[in-house]
């Protein structure tokens, strides 16, 4: 089949973009031709045969940004101008999608969250127009929904709220839904009587990851740590829902100066640096300045280095960590959990809602799990045992790795994509 991917941005570290890259790899492994239409290609050169840029589809385009600002953030009581803008650019984007699909002879569309979350109204409506006009079977990869974001997508204009309610998630006879968790599946069924296929986020278990090698062997040294220091890795962005304050509290409760918390993500998504400053205050109050490191300057999402370099990849952080801390209060899925499993790194996790236990924890992973981010005496004892008992640490790591390979590998993704494409093929026939 000739598959057409529709996405606002691809190539960076955004969760939707990362999973889309995996879908593309597996589609191609299955023998399909994959063409991508996007508003932004990050950190890559375009392959003109398979990749096409439509700037208006970018979340950061003047068109998309203005629409979001006036619809949700800073309305200016000029609804007619806003509606005219939305309809004009949705028509423009829709027409570009139609022309591209005809040129590339697309058999099935895959809309990457653009038809689920109204983060770009014009793109979402444009995709709908193209699907209606062409009548192609379409898969919407629904990562999250507007009602999961509080008031983020609540407009003072009833007309805008109606547009959102009518079009997100997209509900047409030729649209088939892929959701990333059981909660999403249940919600679509309850709210809209729409069936969906749960497609978990996955990792490539066929590639080396989280292994100590010549390019990362000096990581602890370059972080300024001593040989007998040990690392707990917080491989997340610095945003409040990641529960990083619990990881810092854990370092305090370990009462061990050799314990080092390494936080790999930046605080660029923390609006006003409010949460980041709270963490700095916590570190100061607990006198942990030498034990908590913000390391986004040296540990990057995508490493480009040679032996001896002083920059590292996320894989390198897992390679040197005794365990990873993952005390999130909410996640749509939880890529960092599966990364830890892939990197053979034991995990200290909060039972984050609504996903962790139904979709991940119940599979049988061995972790130290908190409820409501409360570190009990037993949890602390268990974490110390995982950190200091090398045999137990290795056994847990290997057990979780084999379980992850069973449930969250590219093989699992391929099975799910076969199911979705079969549905699309039956519709088109």
From TrEMBL:
It comes from the Bacteria. The keyword Transferase applies. Residues 219-402 form the Glycosyl transferase family domain. The keyword Transferase applies. GO terms for molecular function: glycosyltransferase activity. SUPFAM superfamilies: UDP-Glycosyltransferase/glycogen phosphorylase. This is Glycosyltransferase involved in cell wall biosynthesis. GO terms for biological process: lipopolysaccharide biosynthetic process. Keywords: Transferase. It comes from Marinifilum flexuosum. Pfam families: Glycos_transf_1.
């Amino acid at each position: 089949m000739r598959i057409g991917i529709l996405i606002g941005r691809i190539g960076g570290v955004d969760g939707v973009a990362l999973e889309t890259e995996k879908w593309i790899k597996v589609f191609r492994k299955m023998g399909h031709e994959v063409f991508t239409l996007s508003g932004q290609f990050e950190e890559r050169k375009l392959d003109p045969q398979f990749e096409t840029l439509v700037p208006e589809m970018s979340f950061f385009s003047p068109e998309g940004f203005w629409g979001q600002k006036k619809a949700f953030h800073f309305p200016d009581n000029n609804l007619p101008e806003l509606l005219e803008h939305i309809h004009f650019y949705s028509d423009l984007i829709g027409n570009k999608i139609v022309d591209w699909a005809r040129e590339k002879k697309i058999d099935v569309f895959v809309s990457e969250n653009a038809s689920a979350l109204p983060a770009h109204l014009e793109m979402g409506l444009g995709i709908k127009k193209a699907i209606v006009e062409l009548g192609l079977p379409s898969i919407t990869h629904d990562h999250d929904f507007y009602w999961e974001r509080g008031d983020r997508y609540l407009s003072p204009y009833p007309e805008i709220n109606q547009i959102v309610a009518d079009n997100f998630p997209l509900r047409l006879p030729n649209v088939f839904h892929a959701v990333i968790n059981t909660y999403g599946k249940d919600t679509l069924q309850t709210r809209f009587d729409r069936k969906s296929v749960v497609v978990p986020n996955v990792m490539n278990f066929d590639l080396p990851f989280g292994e100590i090698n010549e390019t990362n062997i000096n990581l602890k040294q370059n972080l300024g740590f001593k040989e007998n220091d040990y690392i707990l890795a917080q491989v997340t962005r610095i945003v409040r829902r990641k529960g990083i304050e619990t990881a810092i509290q854990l370092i305090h409760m370990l009462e061990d100066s050799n314990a080092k918390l390494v936080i790999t993500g930046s605080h660029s998504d923390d609006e006003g640096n409010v949460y980041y400053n709270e963490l700095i205050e916590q570190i100061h109050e607990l006198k942990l300045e030498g034990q908590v490191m913000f390391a986004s300057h040296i540990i990057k999402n995508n490493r480009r280095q040679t032996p001896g370099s002083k920059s590292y990849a996320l894989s390198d952080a897992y390679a040197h960590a005794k365990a990873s801390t993952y005390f999130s209060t909410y996640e749509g899925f939880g890529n960092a959990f599966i990364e830890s499993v892939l990197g053979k790194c034991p995990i200290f996790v909060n039972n984050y809602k609504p996903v962790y236990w139904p979709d991940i924890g119940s599979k049988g992973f061995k972790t130290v799990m908190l409820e409501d981010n409360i570190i009990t005496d037993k949890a602390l004892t268990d974490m110390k045992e995982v950190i200091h008992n090398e045999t137990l640490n290795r056994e847990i790591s290997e057990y979780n790795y084999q379980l992850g390979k069973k449930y969250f590998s590219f093989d699992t993704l391929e099975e799910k994509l076969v199911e979705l494409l079969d549905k699309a093929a039956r519709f088109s026939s």
